[in-house]
Write a structure and sequence with these properties.
Blueprint lengths: L4 H5 L36 H6 L20 H16 L7 E3 L7 E3 L2 E3 L1 H11 L3 E2 L24 E2 H4 L3 H7 L5 E3 L22 H8 L1
Parallel strand pairs: 3-6
Antiparallel strand pairs: 1-2, 4-5
Helix pairs in contact: 3-4, 4-6
């Protein structure tokens, strides 16, 4: 059993090997707005957290408004999703190796709390998009993502019939819809109140 301890611990409090992540987590006093819950222990820098809030972010040259202006209530979930991905040191149990030009590691099947997926879907159901997997298949000829030829803009509720499809398909199964609810210790919170501590520490430990 003792021999297994180092392996288990290596899944906790780590940053993935990806484009903007720090090598190891630590305090960041000036994290911007929605990324601020991670300021005590973050894998992102202040600059990354600032870029995460821009409509045309330099992080990946990704444009949220590819089918017209995304409503603010929807966009805030994508900002929060970016903050979780860039800043969280609690995703170790779901980090996988990947051979990609822009990152060596990714997350796969992170169990996102049911309410987080439901609220994301509810706030975005009337927003428009032309794709169900946003990781690939875009037209990048202009340097930013545009809808591929032959695709058309449709409401999220048509592209993603429910919260499960949105959470699981949009980023190539980075997330899965967990049946568990916030506070259960069994699912990752995309949203949390830092005044109450980071609930994802316990969740990562459980799965590690």
């Amino acid at each position: 059993a003792d021999a297994a301890v180092p392996v288990r611990n290596s899944l906790l409090n780590i940053c993935m090997d990806a484009k903007h992540h720090k090598h190891e987590p630590g305090p960041e006093g000036k994290l911007h707005e929605q990324c601020s819950p991670w300021k005590d222990n973050a894998c992102c820098t202040a600059n990354t957290s600032l870029e995460a809030h821009k409509d045309q972010s330099k992080l990946y040259n990704f444009n949220w408004d590819h089918c017209g202006v995304m409503p603010a209530k929807c966009k805030r979930h994508f900002i929060q999703d970016t903050c979780l991905y860039e800043c969280s040191p609690n995703l170790g149990p779901w980090i996988e190796q990947v051979d990609s030009s822009w990152r060596r590691e990714r997350i796969l099947h992170v169990p996102l709390c049911r309410e987080d997926c439901e609220e994301w879907w509810e706030d975005c159901r009337d927003a428009l998009t032309c794709k169900e997997n946003w990781h690939k298949g875009w037209d990048w000829t202009t340097g930013t993502n545009r809808c591929p030829q032959g695709s058309r803009c449709r409401p999220f509720r048509e592209v993603f019939p429910g919260p499960k499809e949105l959470c699981e398909q949009i980023w190539s199964h980075s997330y899965r819809l967990s049946p568990a609810r916030r506070g259960s210790g069994l699912c990752i919170h995309m949203w949390f109140d830092p005044a109450r501590g980071n609930p994802n520490k316990v969740v990562a430990k459980y799965y590690a």
